[in-house]
Specification:
By secondary structure, this protein is α/β, with parallel strands linked by helices. It is about 45% helix and about 15% strand. It is built from 8 helices and 6 strands; from the N terminus they run E-H-E-H-H-E-H-H-E-H-E-H-E-H.
Length: about 210
């Protein structure tokens, strides 16, 4: 199985939790894992000194003003997937998954909707709100892969009702919502592990299905 991991706003592809997730997937589920820096993040950030709340604000401004942001990000992920599969000389039936929260869902949910090779995904820390609400709502309804959705009960960035609304709009018949106490950044280690186990379980079922 091959897993793409998207990071949150103001983060980068080598965030501690991204590396920890990759290690879990590689060590316990024999998965291959890759991550990309989001637009203007990590090694792609033209102002590396801008981090934390300022970087989060910059992303929010770009999300509001750049109508091409989602499509460009989706195209980058799909290009990377093509290149990796070619490098691995991977069989066409390789199970592919996606894991991404917050910005990883803002840009990743449309990716999962657009990319038929993705067979399961972990999404969350995002609601049916924001400047791309119309796109997110439409793409959520078109989703068909199994989805594990994480929410934080006291999320200060995305109101609880909007998170529940977005989960309800997801078209997948196999979907799970896990809501836990705490702020946006307070996802527990247990829930990270649960999300990894869900993803691996659904992708193993894809690999074991006769073609």
């Amino acid at each position: 199985m091959l897993i793409a991991v998207g990071h949150g706003a103001s983060g980068h592809k080598m965030e501690d939790y991204v590396v920890a997730l990759a290690r879990q997937l590689v060590r316990h589920h024999q998965a291959a894992v890759f991550a990309l820096d989001g637009p203007n993040h990590g090694e792609r950030n033209p102002q590396p000194s801008v981090t934390g709340p300022l970087a989060l604000m910059e992303f929010a401004q770009r999300w509001s003003s750049d109508g091409t942001l989602t499509d460009v990000a989706v195209a980058e992920w799909r290009w990377a997937l093509d290149e990796i599969l070619e490098f691995l000389s991977a069989a066409s039936d390789l199970a592919i998954g996606y894991w991404g929260l917050s910005m990883g869902t803002i840009l990743g949910l449309p990716l999962v909707a657009a990319e038929p090779r993705i067979s399961a995904a972990v999404l969350g820390l995002m609601g049916a709100t924001g400047p791309t609400r119309e796109r997110i709502v439409s793409d959520a309804a078109s989703l068909t892969p199994p989805i594990f959705f994480l929410g934080q009960w006291d999320d200060e960035l995305f109101p609880r009702a909007s998170v529940v609304e977005l989960f309800g709009l997801i078209g997948s018949r196999d979907k799970t919502l896990v809501m836990s106490p705490g702020p946006h950044s307070g996802v527990s280690g247990e829930n990270f592990r649960r999300s990894v186990d869900f993803l691996a379980d659904r992708l193993l079922k894809v690999n074991s299905t006769p073609h």
